[in-house]
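Researcher: I'd like a structural prediction for the single chain below. Treat it as a standalone chain; there are no partners to consider.
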Amino acid sequence: MKLTRYALTLIATAVLAGCASNVKLDEPAPVETAQVKPPVATPAQPAKPAETAVPTVDLFAQYTQQVQGKRVVYFDFDSDVVKEEYRPLVDLHAKRLNANKKAALNLEGHTDERGGREYNLALGQRRAEAVAKSLTLLGVAANQVEAVSFGKERPAVQGTGEEVWAKNRRVELKDK
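Model: Treating it as a single chain, here is the predicted structure.
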């Protein structure tokens, strides 16, 4: 018991000794003063604009050039889901529209010849709106895109058969 008390006393003394400091708290800290020289007056010269070696890049023009010939999104039969293979195309158009908030697109939805007129008009509208939603999710303002449907009234290719129908199931992205 005495040994434990003695050990605790030694530990407490060691801890308190470790907390001791040689810094005197009653004395103010030393302050160094420096002499400030007033600025020398010079004749006023007009400020020159900063010149830069970095050329200005017109992103809208750059993206417009990249989208040439890339303005159609094709769909599966009776579907309004934008296929994964067309995501880069939609992304490129989104970058273009985001680079110029005054630019706008008409999204023209089309279907193949199968089905009734009303059904195809509704399907073409859903397809155009699916592309519009993809663009707005990428930051394009809603007033920059307008979805319209032509249904089966304006086929890209005349005829019948799956190869022809596949080319008619589309949304065309046209500048306003």
